[in-house]
Amino acid sequence: MNKQDISVQLYTTRKFQPYPPILNFIKEAGVVNLELFGLESMNIDEFKNMMESNNITSLSTHVGFEALQDTKNIIERAKNLNIKHVIVPAPPAKKDGDFSNTFEMTEEEWTAFGKDLSSYVNQFEGEGLTLGYHNHSYEFIALPSGKFPIECMMDQNEKLKFEIDLGWAVAGGADPKNWIEKYSNKIIACHLKDFYSKEKDMLDHDNQSAIGDGFIDWSDLISSIKKTNCELFVLEHDDPKDYKEYISRSIENLKDI
């Protein structure tokens, strides 16, 4: 892969703020596109200036589901930054603050969430944007009926798009290639996430590695996903010790794929 084809999810760098030197490093690394997060609360003018000064674009962003209720605000913010894809990264947070509990839903609850999310699709498409969903590992753990939460989500609206996090799919016990094939017409972006060992807890962020330093066969997966409409290949590490090393190593390992 060429550097220009690789994006970085800004969440990877959140603990290393301020952002100006981060964006400068990303520019120097040869990356030209960022995926943002927290669009609903960020300083749009500040980020727009930072990106323009570094010749960096942002074609996608993560937005909390709750923020979609202020639809006009999200659409205006996205269009201000020339964002194309608005992606919800998880169901609404549970009040107890435990992230994993957010995903403890019945099939009926997953289906209802999928319908709720899909109800916004036409408003975004009417403004030239796409609305999608980003998975974690939990969506690939079968429900009692045998159906998977990701199916409850994706099957509610044919126009709801999909940013498939390939690493989290593996962590959920899935073969990502099966889901790439199943939702090939929905995939508009993917997250690249790797792990040192399949024998260790893949929900432990310390088990996340630079792309290509782990056990996932990226040549095979990227070959498969390039057969879809995937536009963005996004690096993401949930808690790197050194974001510069993570990004640099990942780019280096991906250059021959």
CATH class bucket: Alpha Beta
Percent helix? 25-40%
Radius of gyration: 17 Å
Number of domains: 1
Class by SSE composition: alpha/beta
Distance between the termini: 5 Å
- For the secondary structure, the number of strands is 10
**Multimeric state:** single chain
SS strand fraction: 15-25%
Question: In CATH terms, what is the fold-level topology?
Answer: TIM Barrel
What does this structure look like?
The structure is a single chain. With 257 residues, this protein is an alpha/beta fold. It has helices spanning 19-28, 44-53, 71-80, 107-118, 121-125, 149-154, 166-171, 176-182, 218-225, 243-254, and strands at residues 6-9, 33-37, 57-62, 85-88, 130-134, 161-165, 187-192, 194-195, 208-209, 232-235. The chain has a single domain (3-254), classed as TIM Barrel, CATH 3.20.20. The protein is built from ten helices and ten strands. The chain has an eight-stranded parallel beta barrel. A two-stranded antiparallel ribbon has the order 8-9. It is globular. It starts with 5 loop residues before the first strand and ends with a helix.
